[in-house]
Write a structure and sequence with these properties.
The strands form three sheets. A six-stranded parallel sheet has the order 3-2-1-4-5-6. Strands 7-8-9 form a three-stranded antiparallel sheet, with helices on one face. The chain is α/β, with parallel strands linked by helices and about 400 residues long. It is about 35% helix and about 15% strand. The protein has helices at about 15-25, 65-75, 90-95, 100-105, 130-135, 155-180, 190-200, 200-210, 245-255, 270-280, 285-295, 305-310, 315, 365-370, 375-385; strands at about 5-10, 30-35, 55-60, 80-85, 110-115, 185-190, 225-230, 235-240, 300, 320-325, 340, 355-360.
Length: about 400
């Protein structure tokens, strides 16, 4: 994505996830924030969130001011993509809707990320990850808690996959579709629609067969003992995903339960199979079982904690974690602070050489950006003095 410029009006959530991906694929991403002291202060994520804003440029523009809006549209004229996460209709009221952007740049791609899309009865609803997982069927199809209620996910699946990945994929497809000469497009990214797609195996089963689909309905939702989690002697846990018959047979023999080899999908005995599996796994520690089973075609893995994941040999071999360092604030400023973070791990992302520089959150690239957009130094100085840009 070298040569693609993205203006990002978001601070957190799926839109920020989207531009994180685009930046890691090589796009130039400019975070366009609010001018401090003008209006409500936006959410400021912790310094480490969203990969610490690695590779990102920053500017602050008062979009409610006509001259600020004009400066933003000057940036749009030289950009390829604008990503925003306001409620439906807000960008039009600000004067930076798709028609306004297209007037400044007919090739611009506007990616609007919202919870439920630009239209429909839920379009105006506020929400977060758990709400989109709930309305997309994901929570109801997941194993319930001990009290029977839907679980709370341990990862922001809706934000990251249903929203952020969907938006990044849509932007990339739009860039290809636009080509060298085509017009831009307005992308209506609904996070809930993304969750709908993530849950589509269950939904398609219901639509095609009328089945009452939910947890424990089929092999991948916990109906059978071959696809479950089991506690070990040291209190650790194993995940078992022995779907194929040959993997299940290997598992049964290696844990001392050969009597169940021919009963993998026998509903009448699943409680007995689970009981024997639980008893078998409780005889040894987690890592002992992993050493015996994981490489033996049984589809058994340890359930790793976050602390264990960051020290895991597989991810180390894949260079999944990188060193990051804050940039020094002038020659007399404090020394750079180093820390680790998840690197650009998706296929095709360039891997950094050396520590990733993390810009100071208060740093501004406004003068450089507006100068490149054609504004004169005196005009930029005037806008800064009047608090329209920062």
């Amino acid at each position: 994505m070298r040569g693609v410029t993205v203006l990002d009006l978001s601070t957190v959530g799926p839109a920020a996830r989207c531009t994180r991906l685009l930046a890691d694929y090589g796009a130039t991403v400019v975070k366009v924030g609010a001018v401090p002291g003008r209006g409500a202060e936006p959410i400021q994520p912790p310094f480490y969130a969203y990969s610490g804003s690695r590779y990102l440029l920053r500017t602050a523009i008062d979009l409610k001011d006509p001259e600020g809006r004009g400066a933003f549209l000057d940036l749009v004229a030289t950009a390829d993509v604008v990503v925003e996460s306001f409620r439906p209709g807000v960008v039009d009221r600000l004067g930076i809707g798709f028609k306004d952007l297209s007037a400044a740049n007919p090739r611009i791609i506007l990616c609007s990320t919202t919870g439920y899309g630009q239209d429909g009865p839920r379009a105006s609803w506020a929400g977060h990850d758990i709400n989109y997982l709930a309305t997309g069927g994901y929570l109801a199809a997941t194993e319930p808690r001990a009290d029977g209620g839907p679980p709370v996910s341990g990862a922001t699946i809706a934000d990251a996959a249903g929203g952020g990945m969907q938006a990044a994929m849509a932007v990339m497809a739009a860039l290809i579709g636009r080509g060298d000469h085509g017009p831009g497009v307005h992308l209506d990214v609904s996070i809930a629609d993304g969750v709908l797609w993530l849950t589509s195996l269950a939904l398609d089963e219901h639509l095609a067969t009328g089945a009452d689909v939910g947890h424990a309905q089929n092999i991948i939702t916990g109906r059978y003992a071959c696809y479950d989690t089991y506690q070990t002697a040291d209190g650790g846990w194993l995940a078992v995903g022995a779907i194929e018959a040959k993997f299940f047979a290997n598992l049964c023999r290696l844990i001392g339960c050969p009597q169940w080899v021919d009963h993998q999908l026998d509903d009448e005995v699943q409680d007995k199979v689970r009981a024997d599996f639980r008893a078998a796994f409780a005889t040894k520690d987690r890592d002992t079982w992993v050493a015996e089973l994981a490489a033996a075609d049984t589809c058994v893995t340890p359930v790793l904690s976050v602390q264990e994941v960051v020290a895991d040999a597989q991810y180390a071999a894949r260079h999944a974690f990188v060193e990051a360092a804050t940039e020094p604030d002038g020659p007399d400023g404090p020394a750079p602070v180093r820390f680790r973070q998840v690197g650009p791990v998706l296929a095709g992302m360039p891997h950094p050489e050396g520590p990733v520089p993390i810009p100071e959150p208060s740093r501004s690239d406004t003068e450089r950006l507006l100068t490149a957009a054609g504004l004169t130094p005196s005009h930029i100085s005037e806008l800064k003095e009047r608090g329209i840009v920062a």
